[in-house]
Amino acid sequence: MSLDSLLLSALAPWRGSPAWWVAFSGGLDSTVLLHLLARLADQHELPPVRAIHVHHGLQPAGDDWPAHCQAVCDGLDVPLQVVRVKVAPGASLERAAREARYEAFSACLGEDEVLLTGQHRDDQAETVLFRLLRGAGVRGLAAMPVERPLGLGRLVRPLLGASRAEIEAYARRNALRWVEDPSNRNHDYSRNFLRREVMPLLQQRWPQTVSSMARAAAHMAEAQQLLDELAQQDLSAANTASDFEWLRLPSLALSPLRSLTPARQRNALRHWLADFTLAPDENHWAGWASLLDARPDATPRWRLVGGELQRSGDRIWWLPNGWLEPGFEPIDWSDPSTGLVLPGNGTLRGEGAPPAGKLQIRYRRGGEVLLVPGRGRRDLKRLLNEAGVPALVRGRLPLLYRDDELIAVANLPQLSEGGFALYWCVPEF
Ligand SMILES: Nc1ncnc2c1ncn2[C@@H]1O[C@H](COP(=O)(O)OP(=O)(O)OP(=O)(O)O)[C@@H](O)[C@H]1O
Fold first, then answer.
1. What kind of fold does domain 3-222 have according to CATH?
2. Which positions ≥6 away from 3 have C-beta within 8 Å?
């Protein structure tokens, strides 16, 4: 199949999109992609083609690329947007640059617009091999998807079916000029070692290496899809509403998960956690066993990147890092007929006739006693236990004091004196 027809068929599902943006680094692959599209746009009715170049400002050689990209785009009559990004220095400059780049891509995409990047089949095969050598699982070995959501639109890799040789041949035939990223040669040594040393050796012995590996990636992508469907089924039984929906924290019931095999438990949990944190690595799953096997009165926790899972009763809860910050100061509530902003802890409003006296919101320190309508003075801890309030919320739970006497607990109207109930809107993280 020629590159023209390969590209047209890969992009057929996106012909109705309002715009196609080529992610144009100035390198060989995206230069070929841009040239192909500009040519095809003359012969076919395609969405408007535009280009975006992200300037990272990380190396002197890169300073010339925006001008080079502009010249190429002018020649092809394609509008170019150059976006300068600030890359936060950190452990991995390459990863930070990638994140900044994708943020810029995502910001430029309007609704249903498509961003096209230049990766090809050889890139896909190298990704598979690289990840295999790091012990990746099914998701990792599925390598780069042909398309995925990005911002308001989609990211599509229409050249994944083309080989590097075809792309190079096209560039030669059309006398294209492109930039070489000098850091490509050293910044990713292992990747380059695979590209230059290992892949050619494999291809000598097995000429189909690249397409076989790309096919294996496609099998993995399908297997991953089945695993995701299984996870969704398994989670639907566990993703039931809790009595504490107002906490606005993700939570799951444990009993439906407990009835699954350990592999299905991990699959379901991996799927659920993907929205909040990085997948736990294989050595890390002991944390899950400790949540499952804990005694009912224990409050085990499993620390993960960006937060932790805690168990309370028969549920597990995801607590983002900010949630766990302790220590809130008491705050006066001089006019309980209006709402109250609790610094770092959401907002509060009252319902019913406000009690007379000096009102103050405080937080638990232990040993509090509450005056319960019709029941007299009761130990707060016991009352919270009776109401099944998860331990993980107790440090944040606003308590209403009148002249140093605890008279109400937020979101537990049954624990309020004289019909004045407190409604607490928990902060979002
Ligand atoms: N600075 C950038 N600005 C715009 N798009 C980029 C940029 N860097 C990479 N891309 C896009 O991401 C794809 C993959 O990036 P990668 O770093 O693997 O490629 P490259 O070697 O820099 O460029 P190419 O793939 O065009 O030869 C590129 O094909 C291109 O579409």
1. Rossmann fold (3.40.50)
2. 32, 36, 159, 162, 166, 167, 170
- The domains of the chain are located at 3-222, 242-321, 331-425
CATH of the structural domain 242-321, one choice from 3.30.465.60, 3.20.20.100, 3.40.1060.10, 3.50.50.60 = 3.30.465.60
What HEC string does 90-136 produce? CCCHHHHHHHHHHHHHHHHCCCCCEEECCCCHHHHHHHHHHHHHCCC
Q: Return d(Cα 266, Cα 312) in angstroms, integer.
A: 19
- Distance (Å, rounded) from C-alpha 135 to C-alpha 145? 19
- Domains 3-222 and 242-321 fall in the same CATH topology: no
Q: Is the CB of 27 under 6 A from ligand 1?
A: yes
Is the distance from the beta carbon of residue 181 to the nearest atom of ligand 1 less than 6 Å? Answer: yes
Going by pLDDT thresholds of 50, 70 and 90, the confidence category of residue 91 is low
The predicted structure's pLDDT at residue 286: 84
Least confident piece of the model among 43-57, 161-175, 268-282: 268-282
pLDDT in tens, 278-308: 877 777 888 898 898 888 777 788 999 999 9
127 lines ligand 1 (CB under 6 A): no
Please indicate whether residue 414 or residue 11 has the higher confidence score (pLDDT): 11
Name the residue at shortest CA distance from atom 16 of ligand 1.
Answer: 119
9-35 mean pLDDT: 97
Binding site residue list: 25-30
In the reported structure, the alpha carbon of residue 182 is separated from the centroid of ligand 1 by a whole-number distance in angstroms of 13
In the annotated binding site for ATP, the residues are 25-30
Q: Average pLDDT in the 345-370 region?
A: 90
Whether ligand 1 lies within 6 angstroms of the CB of 54 is answered as yes
